[in-house]
Specification:
The chain is α/β, with parallel strands linked by helices and 212 residues long. The chain has three helices and eleven strands, in the order E-E-E-E-H-E-H-E-E-E-H-E-E-E. It has an eleven-stranded mixed beta sheet. Helix 1 crosses helix 2. The structure holds zinc ion.
Length: 212
């Protein structure tokens, strides 16, 4: 877990949104290898082990996925528009197999939800295991891009969308309907890609405040 990404992690429990306090036990450069994330409100604890923050079920058994086709990785980088280094992109489930090669093309930090077995954490790749509930333990509007795999629960689409910043890209399998709140940019026989629209204003009037 890249230390700067700790800022976007959130407690899952039902109380006001809060960041988590890190107690790092082992670091490698700027990556947390082992440690504990604690909630300052409800005192829930989420362990970090082998670079992965655990919010739910542990990683699947150690069977290594085959490395992806390089053209598929380039395609994903293009769909997510990872052309500059700012922010982080969320790769959910099997889409995480592209992470090591994506890092060859892009300096964007990659956060893998339920990382596929065999993907090494560190060097721009971070991971978390997801809770059973659809909600993701991430700050709203914090990710520049989100890629969803074929196995995603449809209920998780909405929580993934909430994590996406305005103007950010979401790539999803065509089996999922395009939700409201995004503008579809393109689709082929496998995926659609859409851009999140800015949140609608509750009123047409922008209030101005005098600077103190
Ligand atoms: Zn909490």
């Amino acid at each position: 877990m890249f230390i700067e990404l700790v800022d976007v992690l959130r407690c899952l429990n039902a109380h006001e949104e809060t960041w988590l306090v890190l107690a790092a036990e082992r670091m490698k450069g700027r990556d947390v290898i082992d440690g504990v994330l604690g909630c300052p409100i409800c005192h829930a604890e989420y362990p970090i082990s082998a670079g992965v923050a655990h919010f739910g079920r542990s990683a699947p058994a150690e069977t290594h996925s085959a490395p992806p086709d390089e053209n598929e990785t380039l395609r994903l980088a293009a769909l997510l528009d990872l052309t500059d280094a700012r922010g982080y992109a969320l790769l959910v489930g099997e889409t995480g197999i592209h992470a090591p090669r994506l890092r060859d093309f892009s300096d964007v930090q990659l956060l893998l939800v339920d990382p596929p077995p065999g993907i090494q954490m560190g060097d721009g790749i971070s991971g978390l295991t997801s809770p059973a509930e659809p909600a993701l333990p991430l700050a709203a509007g914090s990710a520049r891009g989100v890629a969803l795999d074929d196995k995603i629960q449809p209920e998780r689409l909405q929580s993934a969308l909430e994590v996406l910043t305005a103007g950010g890209r979401i790539v999803a399998p065509i089996a999922l309907p395009v939700p409201s709140g995004v503008t579809e940019l393109a689709r082929d026989d496998r995926h659609w890609v859409a851009e999140r629209m800015p949140a609608p204003r509750t009123s047409g009037i922008v209030s101005l405040h005098r600077r103190e």
